[in-house]
């Protein structure tokens, strides 16, 4: 369990953020509809590169990873805002972020190595809103601003929760998140991921955040044998489950639903991947795929 001091400090940090931010979102457990029919299915091989070639734009505040042929079939692409671990930049996670873009997502990765406040992360949404409305932009009319996720690693994992106070964010994916956050300030569904052998962010710290999220759907997965740096690069064993989660909540992918929800969910019985797994009461209310 994180110490009371760190939780209080985290609350103070978020209070400072909230002074310049909007109120928590109330998206709850709403799921994307209508987008999955135009962005191609990948079956259930979540770790395999998706159908899109990827372009990368490195700018002053953000690095954007996105499908090279955005909107070629009239589709609009959901958004993932990304937060780095302490001292890191998006390039450290480039293969993972490219993977998500290959799946049809637009990733706005904040370039900051100190992402905890999530201010630069949330600014990525502002940039994409502007470009989506700009007829001279390559993003014009191609961004699905109704379906947005926040994700990040370590300090950026805490920032992923902090970013979800924004009502535009629909779900959060904190990977080995640090303690300077407060899940009570957000209402979106969350996939908490820990590493069994993480000596920087102990699994118990992540599980404490998960247990504090009793008001929104939350799933806890502890990746077997994973240390704190195993999620960098291509995401390692974190890559497939994060992709499945994002495809469900942002694309309404029914194949991905079956990995997390219902009595026979795929990840529930995957003892090879997980050394720990749990779903809270709100997550248990979400039905599995139709028979």
UniProtKB/TrEMBL annotation:
Signal peptide (residue range): 1-29
InterPro entries for this protein: AB_hydrolase_fold, PET_hydrolase/cutinase-like
Keywords, alphabetical: Signal
Pfam families listed in its UniProt record: PETase (PF12740)
PET hydrolase/cutinase-like domain span: 63-254
Domain of life: Bacteria
Keyword Ubl conjugation: no
Protein name (record): Acetylxylan esterase
Lineage of producing organism: Bacteria, Bacillati, Actinomycetota, Actinomycetes, Kitasatosporales
């Amino acid at each position: 369990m994180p110490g009371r001091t760190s939780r209080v400090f985290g609350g103070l940090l978020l209070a400072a953020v909230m002074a310049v931010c909007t109120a928590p979102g109330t998206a709850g457990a709403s799921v994307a509809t209508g987008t999955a029919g135009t962005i191609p299915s990948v079956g259930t091989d979540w770790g395999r590169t998706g159908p899109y070639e990827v372009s990368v734009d490195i700018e002053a505040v953000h690095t954007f990873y996105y499908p090279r042929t955005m909107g070629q079939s009239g589709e609009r692409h959901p958004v993932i805002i990304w937060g780095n671990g302490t001292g890191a930049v998006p390039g450290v996670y480039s293969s993972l972020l490219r993977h998500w873009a290959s799946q049809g997502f637009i990733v706005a990765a904040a370039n900051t190595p100190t992402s905890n406040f999530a201010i630069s992360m949330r600014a990525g949404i502002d940039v994409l809103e502007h470009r989506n409305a700009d007829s001279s932009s390559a993003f014009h009319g191609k961004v699905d601003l109704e379906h947005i996720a926040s994700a990040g690693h370590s300090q950026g994992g805490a920032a992923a929760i902090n970013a979800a106070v924004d009502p535009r964010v629909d779900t959060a994916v904190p990977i080995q998140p640090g303690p300077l956050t407060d899940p009570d300030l957000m209402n979106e569904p969350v996939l908490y991921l820990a590493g069994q052998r993480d000596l920087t962010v102990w699994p118990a710290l992540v599980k404490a955040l998960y247990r504090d999220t009793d008001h929104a759907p939350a799933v806890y997965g502890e990746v077997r044998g994973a240390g704190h740096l195993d999620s960098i690069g291509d995401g390692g064993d974190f890559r497939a489950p994060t992709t499945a989660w994002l495809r469900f909540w942002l694309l309404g992918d029914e194949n991905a639903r079956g990995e997390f929800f219902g009595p026979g969910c795929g990840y529930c019985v995957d003892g090879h991947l997980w050394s720990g797994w749990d779903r809270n009461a709100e997550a248990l209310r979400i039905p599995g795929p139709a028979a």
